[in-house]
Amino acid sequence: MLVSYKWLKKYIQIEDLTAEEIAEQLTRSGVEVDIVTPMNKGVKNIVAGKVVACEKHPEADKLNVCQVDIGEEELAQIVCGAANVGKDQYVVVAKVGARLPGGMKIKRAKLRGQVSEGMICSLQELGFEGKLVPKEYAEGIYQFPTAVTPGEDVIPLLNLDDHVLELDLTPNRSDCLSMLGVAYEIGAILGREVTLPEVKEVESTIEAAGTVAVSVEAKDDCPYYGAMIIKDVTISPSPLWLQTTLMAAGIRPINNVVDVTNYVLLEYGQPLHAFDLERFGSKEVLVRRAFEGEKIMTLDGAERTLSAEHLVITNGKEPVALAGVMGGANSEVQQDTTTILLEAAYFSGITVRKASRDLGLRSDASARFEKGVDPNRVKEAGLRAAAMISELAGGTVVSDVTEYDALDRGEKEVTISLAKINDLLGTAIDTVTVKTIFNKLQFAAKEDNDIFHISVPTRRQDIAIEADVIEEVARLYGYDNIPATLSYTATTPGGLTELQAKKRKVRRFLESVGIHEAVNYSLTTAEKESLFEKRSAERIKLALPMSEERSTLRTTLLPHLLDALSYNKNRGILNVALYEIGGVFHTNEAALTTQPSEKTYLSGAFMGLWYEHAWQGEKKPVDFFVVKGIVEGLLEELAIDADVRFDQAEVTGLHPGRTACLKVNGKSVGVIGQLHPNTAKAWSLPETYVFELDFHQLADQDEKVVRYAPIPRFPAMDRDIALVVDENVKAEEVEQVIHELGGDLLKHVALFDLYQGEHLESGKKSLAFSLRYQDPEKTLTDEEVTVVHEKVLVGLEERIGATLRS
Amino acid sequence: MLDRLQELKEEALKKVEAAESVKELKDIRIAYLGKKGPVTEVLKGMGKLTAEERPKVGQMANEVRAAVAVSIEEKEQKLEEAALAEKLRAESIDVTLPGRPTVKGARHPLTSVIETIEDIFIGMGFTVAEGPEVETDYYNFESLNLPKHHPSRDMQDTFFITSDLLLRTQTSPVQTRTMEKHEGKGPVKIICPGKVYRRDEDDATHSHQFMQIEGLLVDEGIRMSDLKGIFEQFVKRYFGEDREIRLRPSYFPFTEPSAELDVSCAICGGSGCRTCKQTGWIEVLGSGMVHPNVLRMGGFDPEKYTGFAFGMGVERFAMLKYGIDDIRHFYTNDTRFLSQFHRV
């Protein structure tokens, strides 16, 4: 809502305050003013002028040489390029020395040999927005609708001395979608009276033949419909004051009749509509729901297909307006219109909102109806407009209002005690102060023993319950005056749940390892998902995505992590390690009917060097075992007390020979692997490794308990062996056999070398292990160890054909 | 004989003096002090001496031996010291070369803000509650006093999946879910961080996905002044002791009265600058006293219980704290951006 400061002064005495001061007061009490804009964008020395003569430029077809009376002794010769300039027009003249917005200075000039002493201006050149300039002047210079005195300063004439407050209204304060509403608000803040506009008694002649019949079929959608006929009007541009007032409020002037309806809409917040009665098609107004598929061409020239949920005004047969949203083109007021049917109605907010949303059509009218207009101002606004039309367009109001009226105009009653107000606010406001606040708000309030009985004026549709009234008291009392206290609730132990604490633990661990945390969008594309289609899950798609790129809920964190690697790679950052902990969404339903399962995944992606030391020349590219080590560290960090295994696996999108599935107690909880070269190619990535774990499953495992184990008192004995085995024998397998054969004395087995190459038979590999023997009760002798160790070696050969490497 | 010994002594000492290595010294020791050395040789001739001369020569011989041995030892030590000094000189390094860096991954700034705020409220006895991101219309809107067709739904353009399921537009549904779990009994003291989604074109100040932290305190006798009190604590701990707060009336469907919280501008200290649009204040969050309908729908009796709720944008907090100018930075995962936050 744009509020003209000058216009506001018609309703409330604010001469002592600047527009900025008013804005600050409004903002502090709950009606936020975004910005205060001066209408004058830097205009200086601009006057009204009368074109006394206008001739074609002898040397240039498109230029005119005008002699303009600018109130000085001599006429000013001005060369003007506008096509619509002509003799006897009253125009805006920027004299030599004048300033235009943007700091442009007007100088004496010579155009194709003709002296030009100034410039005849368009409204755009004065800083008006093109879309607000009346259409007939949009492509050329502006002409005053009536005679003005040459030489007169145009700044007050065009209201350029005004300031406009732009309100950022919250949806509850639709009362401030009107000048009167804003005036009441300021009145409440300042404790000043509001002067209502004078609604003149219109001279009406009862003329049975001229009246229309009104009937309403959709009674819930339209509890009130009033129609008035104004005959013998002359359509013309509005007077200057009306044009400038509308432009300041952000509305383009059209003609005197339409401008009046817009003026009253802004003044009262009550949308009105003027039909051309001759084009209306009948003398019967019927308000009904549209038929399914019924069509109407709205004023903006678009054909709209309606549904049975939309409300239309009809002439008994066909629709002439989309109720509360926009009029129909078929009954539009035009230049030749002489008889007006003026509508002042109350339409249900829900119905208007539905139509407006379904059709994607917002208007000043729909914005107001949606939020509920003041039922006590509907008819008054109609009368006010009728009188203004009669005055400005020279018409006669034919009859009193023909109406259908089932409108509830009752005021809401709220009862509240002083104690309740103070209890909720934590204040000690006294009775008198509360009474004063209600007075300022112009709420009728009766007080009895600190109990207030309030009648809420119907203009304040947002106030219905105690809490609403308390807010009114609080904001006028001043939020600044509410003390700051600490609640006296029972002491509660704050903290994180186990799962939340583990999430932090995982983050700290991954940070310590050197991996940056990424945060990605949950919405992705079906294509990216399909590259990791490891589950046969259904995809969850938005009903109306804004783009294909963000249309599907992710089931894996990997695609966006790869996007991030790719983003960095394209910027020359080649060594990147990222992890993300975030939600993924799975369902088994083809068409979603219940909330999907939301899991938290923990995933990582790595490319390039894992470690690099510049001047020492150390370089370590990331590989499978770097990532496995990180995952193992993670499991250690979470102290998972369960059987954990890494099994060779094949997973879509990953390298078939370099992928492992992580199993906890036999259940798969994630994967580690190298990106399949084809997948890497899809992201233009080099050798890349990833892991993806189901965090909830990991965090749900039992935790190992820390228990002290006695420090061994007797020395251990280490024996190293290098075994030659078939290359497909898994290291883990060998280790397990060693453990089984080693018995109680074998305390620890560690792989320390892997060799495959020229010194070995092909198809073989060598694995070197270090075995540690120890007895907690005594010092082992060499002989005792040898007995067990031999048993291990023999067993290894028998069970997996492992021989000692010579 | 005595002269011979004296001669030998001088000769040996000269050689020791001239020796340049431990090896040479060893040779000298063998040569002069060994069993076949000249001193021993001289002593072998002792039989020819008189009983008077014998002890004199013996004493002299011992003196010569001792003097040579000491001299060798001293020289040895000198040479070792010189060798060590040379070794250390050779081992010297350029200490200005850069050290071997330890690794440190960066915490995402949004995580950092969330954890900081969580910890402040945990300290005040709050717990952290979470809820689903795909929500039902009921929890996201209706239970928060936003019935279907309510004009305020326009404040939040929604990604619908079906007519009833949607991506939550706010973390507020966690309020109702938590209140339901409490079965009408206070106190409820939670904060709820999480992702939310709105139909916005992504640009420098808008993101279709962002993070919020919701807070809720419901108990008997909770007042708006308590809201102000807790904000004072929170703002001073998050933004700094010198920051002031003010509440400004506002509107949210789920609170009444409602308030925006402004914090005095850190850049200008309240005198007005570009950051605060010359107002001296920066808007940081929305809040208010829980609407009776919301309490009722959460299973609490609004005649008995009151409470307050607040919601803040995590990106906004991060942008204010670190001076970040474009919300899209949070979601591109440019490591040149992320790595700046490894200290937070």
Can you give a write-up of this model?
The complex is a heterodimer of chains A (806) and B (344). By secondary structure, chain A is an alpha+beta fold. Chain A is built from 21 helices and 41 strands. In chain A, the strands form eleven sheets. A seven-stranded mixed sheet of chain A has the order 27-30-31-37-36-35-34, with helices on both faces. In chain A, strands 3, 4, 5, 6, 7 and 10 form a six-stranded antiparallel sheet that branches. In chain A, strand 18 (311-314) and strand 19 (319-322) form a beta hairpin. Chain B is of the alpha+beta class and 344 residues long. Chain B is built from twelve helices and nine strands. Chain B has two domains: 2-91, no CATH class; 109-341, BirA Bifunctional Protein, domain 2, CATH 3.30.930. In chain B, 42% of the residues are buried. The chains are: A alpha+beta (806), B alpha+beta (344). Chains A and B meet through helix 8, helix 11, helix 13, helix 14 and strand 27 of A and helix 5, strand 1, strand 2, strand 4 and strand 5 of B.
